[in-house]
Amino acid sequence: MIRPAIEVLGSGALKSYDMALYVLVHGYVVFDTTQQHARDLADEIEKLLALHHIEVEFGTGGSTRIIHFLLDVDSGYSFVEFARWVSMLSLR
Fold first, then answer.
1. How far apart are CA 82 and CA 19, in angstroms?
2. Is the Cβ–Cβ distance between 59 and 81 less than 8 Å?
3. Eight-state DSSP code of residue 3
4. Rounded to an integer, what distance in angstroms lies between the CA atom of residue 4 and that of residue 43?
């Protein structure tokens, strides 16, 4: 499986509609924010994507810095491998 060029969206770009569109295009979205804000965003994004019959999984990666992600279950990416890739991002 080829690792995508993962872009981590920061707090200025965290709009649930835009993030849902990102999932539609890329099969995932990776974002850096607080735990509660991440869960709230994930809930909003999941509702938007459900309108298109797209199911996502919510995950986190990282060691000292937690990065959150939503992964389309039909994206072709392994959830475990994707979480490992996200964890590698936080080590940079």
1. 17
2. no
3. P
4. 24
Cβ atoms within 10 Å of 44's Cβ, excluding its own? 15
Per residue in 18-47, pLDDT (tens digit) is: 999 999 999 999 998 888 888 899 999 999
Structure tokens at 67: 């990065």
State the burial class of residue 52 (Cβ atoms within 10 Å of its Cβ: 0-12, 13-18, 19+).
exposed
Q: What is the pTM of this model?
A: 0.88
| Residue 17 in this model has a pLDDT that exceeds 60 | yes
Q: What is the residue type of 71?
A: L
Beta bridge partners of 57: 71
Query: Could you tell me if 69 and 60 are in contact, meaning their C-beta atoms sit under 8 angstroms apart?
Result: yes
Terminal-to-terminal C-alpha distance of the chain? 22
d(CA 39, CA 42): 5
Which residue reads 């872009």 in tokens? 7
